[in-house]
Amino acid sequence: MSFIVRWLVTAIAVAAAIWIVPGISVAATTDTLVAVGVLAFVLSFLNVSIKPIMQFLGTPLTLLTLGIFSIVINALVLMLAGWLSNGMFGIGIYINSFGSAFFAAIVISIVSAIVNSVAGLED
Length: 123
What we know:
Elements: H1 2-20, E1 24-26, H2 32-49, H3 51-57, H4 59-64, H5 68-89, E2 93-95, H6 98-119
Antiparallel strand pairs: 1-2
Helix pairs in contact: 1-2, 1-6, 2-5, 5-6
């Protein structure tokens, strides 16, 4: 049940990021709701599996940059999720640059925190 709740929160946050950040777009041939759902699923899966390893390996840089590098890790995971959703599922989500992924990672983090606090969920 925890994964489903995480997926729904991530889907809301991804939809907000696609709407707010200009460098992320959905292809015209793809239904936006399906694209958001698939990207949120892949992102949730990567956040559970790959992100802890990246955070562990990036701990020295995170400490050195006082936590800023954790946003870089989030952006890299988001770019990987976009690439995987395009490659595996043929969903047309395009992230134009690392800068777009960086700002989208910030938006996703903020929206996820807000949704989790409003819903009374603990992370």
